[in-house]
Amino acid sequence: MAAAAAAAAVGGPQPPQAELPAPGPGLDKAATAAHLKAALSRPDNRAGAEELQALLERVLSAERPLAAAADGEEAAAAGGGGGAGAAEEEALEWCKCLLAGGGGYDEFCAAVRAYDPAALCGLVWTANFVAYRCRTCGISPCMSLCAECFHQGDHTGHDFNMFRSQAGGACDCGDSNVMRESGFCKRHQIKSSSNIPCVPKDLLMMSEFVLPRFIFCLIQYLREGYNEPADVPSEKDLNKVLQLLEPQISFLEDLTKMGGAMRSVLTQVLTNQQNYKDLTSGLGENACAKKSHEKYLIALKSSGLTYPEDKLVYGIQEQSAGTSTLAVQGFAGATGTLGQLDSSDEEDQDGSQGLGKRKRVKLSSSTKDQSIMDVLKHKSFLEELLFWTIKYEFPQKMVTFLLNMLPDQEYKVAFTKTFVQHYAFIMKTLKKSHESDTMSNRIVHISVQLFSNEELARQVTEECQLLDIMVTVLLYMMESCLIKSELQDEENSLHVVVNCGEALLKNNTYWPLVSDFINILSHQSVAKRFLEDHGLLVTWMNFVSFFQGMNLNKRELNEHVEFESQTYYAAFAAELEACAQPMWGLLSHCKVRETQEYTRNVVRYCLEALQDWFDAINFVDEPAPNQVTFHLPLHRYYAMFLSKAVKCQELDLDSVLPDQEMLMKLMIHPLQIQASLAEIHSNMWVRNGLQIKGQAMTYVQSHFCNSMIDPDIYLLQVCASRLDPDYFISSVFERFKVVDLLTMASQHQNTVLDAEHERSMLEGALTFLVILLSLRLHLGMSDDEILRAEMVAQLCMNDRTHSSLINHIPENPNPKSGIIPGSYSFESVLSAVADFKAPVFEPGGSMQQGMYTPKAEVWDQEFDPVMVILRTVYRRDVQSAMDRYTAFLKQSGKFPGNPWPPYKKRTPLHPSYKGLMRLLHCKTLHIVLFTLLYKILMDHQNLSEHVLCMVLYLIELGLENSTEEDSDEEVSVCGPERCHDSWFPGSNLVSNMRHFINYVRVRVPETAPEVKRDSPASTSSDSLSSLQNSGTAQVFSLVAERRKKFQEIINRSSSEANQVVRPKTSSKWSAPGSAPQLTTAILEIKESILSLLIKLHHKLSGKQNSYYPPWLDDIEILIQPEIPKYNHGDGITAVERILLKAALQSRMNKRIIEEICRKVTPPVPPKKITAAEKKTLDKEERRQKARERQQKLLAEFASRQKSFMETAMDVDSPENDIPMEITTAEPQVSEAVYDCVICGQSGPSSEDRPTGLVVLLQASSVLGQCRDNIEPKKLPITEEEQIYPWDTCAAVHDVRLSLLQRYFKDSSCLLAVSIGWEGGVYVQTCGHTLHIDCHKSYMESLRNDQVLQGFSVDKGEFTCPLCRQFANSVLPCYPGSNVESNLWQRPSNKSIQDLIKEVEELQGRPGAFPVSISSETNLSKEMESVMKDIKNTTQKKYRDYSKTPGSPDNDFLFMYSVARTNLELELIHRGGNLCSGGASTAGKRSCLNQLFHVLALHMRLYSIDSEYNPWRKLTQLVEEVNSQQGNEEQQPEVPILYHDVTSLLLIQILMMPQPLRKDHFTCIVKVLFTLLYTQALVALSVKCNEEDRSAWKHTGALKKNTCDTEKSYEVLLSFVISELSKGKLYHEEGTQESAMVSPISWSPESMEKYLQDFCLPFLRITSLLQHHLFGEDLPSCQEEEEFSVLSSCLGLLPTFYQTEHPFISASCLDWPVPAFDIISQWCFEINSFTERHAEQGKALLIQEARWKLPHLLQLPENYNTIFQYYHRKTCSVCTKVPKDPAVCLVCGTFVCLKGLCCKQQSYCECVLHSQNCGAGTGIFLLINASVIIIIRGHRFCLWGSVYLDAHGEEDRDLRRGKPLYICKERYKVLEQQWISHTFDHINKRWGPHYNGL
Hints:
Blueprint: H1 2-10, H2 29-41, H3 46-59, H4 65-71, H5 75-100, H6 105-113, E1 124-125, E2 130-134, E3 145-146, H7 147-152, E4 160-164, E5 169-170, H8 205-225, H9 235-256, H10 260-271, H11 273-280, H12 287-302, H13 323-329, H14 332-341, H15 352-366, H16 371-374, H17 381-391, H18 396-404, H19 409-421, H20 423-432, H21 436-451, H22 454-464, H23 466-479, E6 482-484, E7 496-498, H24 503-506, H25 511-521, H26 524-532, H27 534-545, E8 553-554, H28 567-587, H29 596-616, E9 627-628, H30 633-648, H31 660-681, H32 690-700, H33 709-722, H34 725-735, H35 755-774, H36 783-797, H37 802-808, H38 824-833, E10 834-837, E11 851-854, H39 856-862, H40 865-871, H41 875-892, H42 923-937, H43 945-960, H44 989-992, E12 997-1005, H45 1009-1020, H46 1022-1031, E13 1032-1033, H47 1038-1053, H48 1056-1061, E14 1078-1087, H49 1089-1101, H50 1116-1119, H51 1131-1145, H52 1147-1158, H53 1167-1210, E15 1234-1235, E16 1242-1243, E17 1251-1260, H54 1289-1303, H55 1306-1312, E18 1320-1331, H56 1332-1344, E19 1358-1359, E20 1366-1367, E21 1369-1372, H57 1378-1384, H58 1392-1404, H59 1411-1414, ...
Parallel strand pairs: 12-13
Antiparallel strand pairs: 1-5, 2-3, 2-4, 6-7, 8-9, 10-11, 12-14, 15-16, 17-18, 17-21, 19-20, 22-23, 22-24, 24-25, 25-26, 26-29, 27-28
Helix pairs in contact: 2-3, 2-5, 3-8, 4-5, 5-6, 5-8, 5-9, 8-9, 8-10, 8-17, 9-18, 14-15, 18-21, 20-21, 20-23, 21-25, 23-27, 25-28, 27-29, 28-30, 29-30, 30-33, 31-33, 31-35, 34-47, 35-43, 36-38, 36-40, 42-43, 42-49, 43-51, 49-51, 51-52, 58-67, 60-63, 61-63, 61-66, 61-71, 66-67, 67-69, ...
């Protein structure tokens, strides 16, 4: 093979050949390359090889400016920099040429690619890349695919998701070790290597010669660049070197992309040891190479590593801890080694050596080989390359190059071994690194590719001791941050734990190593080796014990802690990641019987480690007070392996349990945690700050609970099942510090607990017992049952979305465990227990998500309060679950009152744990239960309903689990002497329940009431004294009891020798009960548990003798005990249920219950207590009454509020459309009355104190978005589909105005059209009014208010004081009375001619306002200021259209266009037509009337010159026609037929004095209609072709003589055609024109329809205007009759018009002057224009308006379509892919959110676009987040997403990456808010964007 030849050729240092021409730029590279290639192809290629060698020496010489720069002589900076760059380029060019062997490099690449047998994809990506993971196809949980392979494969119906890569990764397509072949994409479905041709030898021959030198050159660079400074090399220097090397590494990377053939050459080069040895040994006479080698050795040494062989050659004897020394000194040196090992880290090793000595020595003896840590020997380029990659902290480029090579199998193995060899070095570098996060990601990027492959992991484990290395490295890593443990015995503790405050733990620096470890343990073959290797297990337990007891909390008793440490995050993360996850990994391989041995191993070493730990902390039997650690990983390992052993491996539990003494020790710390939880929740730790609550929550939180609280509880269950029950119970109460409370006496002293904490601690203790006894998670439940229970508990707390359910259900943290969220069992269980509630959409409501809610039968049968309590992080969730349960019972009619938590039947116990139930049948517990029942009955303080509930629960548990059938009970009635000192005869609850206790001896404080009563009783009768020594229950001390038991156990298990040492029980703490002034008293009780229960029933129900045994009436009950009526209910039900169960269990109990009920019991407690009882009853009654009163008040309040809302919102008076009251005195003086919402006064609006409407002014471009085609616009998702806005309404109007301005006089153009299609001002109101002076003071107060508002007061923004709707201005109300308007509306009988004259006069009368206004009044000032506001609402470019800036015509145009905009928008809100009629909701809130007054007032300031008033042209025949031609130089006026009629209407009306008279209005409308109709005829005549025209001309001419010709469209049309034929309008209509006009055959019907459609938009706007000005309702109608209805409503139709024959639009005409004369005058204007500009003349004719309603772009069904196209799309400005791409949903423009590249004058692109596209309103879809953001002016808000997943929930930021589908309802809501301009009102969370979006 050529490689061997190359090696030979390179071998030996050769003198440079003299005869070679110096390789200068002048040399022809290609020729040289070709020559060399030929030379090398000869059989004897020695000469060629030497020649090439010399050339490469020259070209790639390392002595180049780079070396100089790196050496510290900053030559590069001084000016050599350019040279360096040039030399680099040159060298690369040479290499490319040589590789190609004289050919072109690109052709060479193509040629090599042809031989690529790519069965693997292997695409490498870096952080933030979007990749896919399919769980259905993956074998390894880390499997990932690039988007291309994913979409090319078939994954329909699979469980996949898209994700953003955190650390980078590589595509696994084609790798059958990691994924199933069915998931491979089309390109990588296994190709057999046979069909790939063999690579020709000469193709890659040059590469084999050139590449070794090239890589060596790279390595020399890396050596040169690295200076070992005194401190850690600075980031900057390293980066500088790397930047210089960028081109070289990129070149290598490109080589790897050429495919398999080139990769195998590279592999040969990188792994060939001979090459490496020859080139790098540094032994030649080449000084440069020598120097480089020295640098390499120094770098090695400074990293604490030795290079074993060369130790003597270079005289580096400073090594103090080489391998040899270690061997000589034995283990003594081990600790020393550690000291010098990190000599380069300046780490403070203060004292940690001394105290860690014991441990460390042990550690060193157990690790096999110290050399793992500090010996490195490099044998190939690959190894040294990796060394430098690590040294330079994993530069991204290098990582990518090394990973790109992985598809080559040979390389993969070699690289993995190298990686493992450098593992310890990686750890050291990582620890020192400043950028540990980045570095961690890069490490994992590499290791996950190597270790996910089981075959590879197994091979490396066998050949390179992978497991030993990993465990040792982890151990060493943690050793650097150990401190002495302060748990238990602070002074003498020998235990060391990690210090959670260290950076190593705080920053999770250990994460990459642990994650690798978890990854390899997921492979069965590797895990088995681990579990079989005893040495490894010992080391690992050692490692785990570093975390045992970390982050110790000490309770602060005096001061509040001044600094709250946050180390607990680090502690919990460390335990989860470093201990629990490896544990779950190991457990997943212990699933079958055959693996019993493994479990035994783990358990054995775990127990040993625990025993060591107990010894190290000097633990005897009492935990130190006021300390708690939540971290007991050793306990948890032990517990979990026990659980697995019993559940899956059928191991006998007792065979793996230790002796009793060890069990007692094991139980202490987990129990301590449970007690501390109760203390924390009782606020006993408040002085430790919030963080301690945080720990308590994290301990039970869903991601931690199954690695923390669950194993702890399970371990306690195991201990309880094996230890003496009395001992266990008394330990529990002692740990919870409530022993002193458990006394019959009404008063007691608690020496360890404050009174206020007693109650909650008692609740805590009982709750713990209930959980302990009823939880079955590890005691017999199957996985599916567990999943179901978890799910029910979560759903009962709250309805949940699918993702939050997955999040809250603790799944097994190890990914290979099988229950993956989204797996089959998860979904099937979910559908069994929950119903899906699809999201509901109320417009204006909050965006809801799809929720799951528990089915009714789940509430009925499966609601388990115990599970809920165990799983709640916040206590309020328990309450929430109970509230929901209560609501369910009320709703289903099962129980009306306040229910108690239901009792739930449990899964049967696994036989191994049967002993647990002994707890329920031990005297200690029975005494406690008896005492508590008694205390509750007697109303002692500190007992709650919760306590009673738990007591009853425990009794019920005992009855359910009673074992011995007591059949012989009748025979042995126990004599008193059998139990003279004990309370109960036996230990069975069933029989103890009926046992009467007569007297009890108690110790009470001397002040207690019992003391006084006692003395006479004791002496009074003999019977008493005899009783006293027979039946009095002794003083019972739990503590004493526990000590006694403890002693017994110890005696049993240990020799006498230990005996002496033992009794140091708790001398430190005063024994409870030793308080001085206690005295003994004897209480007369005479109760049994049963009698107490019956009395409790009476007490709870508040009636005497309320309990009546149900079986007396219905004997059936005893036979069929499951009675649904007892399932749900309160305490009374619970008591009844228990009594029934007790009766069922034994006949004796049944008899006793009947007896007790027969004695009609007078209340036992002394009279004093009855009073107390009475008091509580009274209290209850009073409470009840208070509650009822409160309810009543609330109801009243609610109804008032409702009526207020109704009046506030819906008062509808036709005159002013404003909530107001009309005084009903005499109709003559009634004036509009307004309420001010600030001062609350009502009154009219007056000149000096005007009232105003709260309004929001906003610029809007919604109108401009109307399009004229029905086909909706789609969001572009390919390069071809771009959107061009030429067909929008705004564009069409723009074009028209600029055309007019080209040919006509500017001032006249500005009256012929409306603007405001884009950036028009829309005015809306909430309908509330206020005095303008009140408003000003309100604004002042807002200004001074420092609260952060969502709006900017300086811009005049505020919220309506009443309804809190957003507003920014106040529109003054015009003073005027209603009567006036009524008078104006009387129809007058004047002729139209008279009215026309009046209109003209009124328009010409300047200042026809009420006189007062012309003088400055408050009202006129306000009118001006609001006008200013309106102008400032929109940008200048949207108001200035005239050629002379600032001309008055401009303002004039702007003002009437505001009116137009508001009318048009209202029309759109009504759906584009007026068929629905009515006043519509918009009417109530409309402010058009006020707006008109303001506009009219200002329009009159600009009175139009009467010459130009279009009114003249409309109503009079102009004689002097020639005047126009006279002044040629001046541009002509706009012909009247080119005027927009709606604009004319508004101009005419706003020029009239307000208020307007109805008949004037009608007159104006009639006149304008004639113009409109003529325009329709002209448009129609242009639309049809020549033949049609002549035909119509003819028929019309015939009819001209019939009657009423002015109202016949045929006649008029024929006249129009004949008039216009005089000009050139119809001429030069060549062939191309007629082609454009559609060949419609016009029938009379279709013509009529055309004319009606042409006129409708005008009629609609006019009707709306009339509705607002005169308050007339709009009639509703069918769509086809809209024209006739509106025209009659407007008074265009003569009243006598008959509706029988078909309606003809022409009949509405009412010509003011003879029709033919005026038409001919109008047509003449057009003809004179078309003389010169025929084309434009036609274009300017007003076309039929056919605008459709505005819509947002149509979005594709699946979000992925959008995402794939846009997330890679480049920005048009900087051609990079933007970080946050967004797309505008109105016009489809692609923008960069926050992109600095597109910033213009401090405006980022989105803000800029929102101004250009929506006049300040922008709707953007953020591609990477699937969310929509709204920009409104200077504020923005996140609106939500319109794409939901299959479970109806959003996926913001695409975190879950599940497929998302469009939710049409949501999109409709968004569109609706856009069209109705209600974003400001509906969305609540706004914030300023400071132009930065």
